[in-house]
Amino acid sequence: MLNIREMMHVALLTAVMGILGIIPPIFLSFTPVPITLQTAGVLLAGGILKPKQAFMSLCLFLFIVAAGAPLLSGGRGGFGVFFGPSGGFLMAYPIVAFGISFWIQQMSRYSVMRFFGVYVACSIGILYSVGVPFQSMIMNIPFKQAAWLSFTYIPGDLLKAILCAVLTIKIRQALSYQERLMQKGGRSY
Questions:
Q1: What is the CA radius of gyration of the chain?
Q2: 3 state DSSP class of 32
């Protein structure tokens, strides 16, 4: 069972995903899967929340999108987005967030480079292993062609991973400070 604070964190990261959807996607002429910043939200959810919370946050986001809210980049929403070329990537979001969070929970020390490594392994490893075969199936193209199309996104994913690693360290430090302050009986803002 989640306490109020944990529920607020889940809701906040779900909202961050929606806010990142406001930023317009970049469409490339050779692939229908757009470049978006929403994968950064997946990384942040996994880096900040506990595994169960990270999974719940992304499931909640996808449920809201499936219900018709136009929260995906470019104002997309509705159940049909899960049957488009980017559907596999979307459905992998909760798994990626859970994997990141689980892996980070096993760490004894945090650093930007460790977070970066986890983010790259999960965002490129898990996300692509689900998204690329799904894209191949939906677009009715060979797997190899779908994989080559997806390689276009790797530089951007690496950039998002390093930026999110730095941001996650800062957010975790702030949350840790706030937690210590509350334990001492101080006020939390």
A1: 17
A2: strand
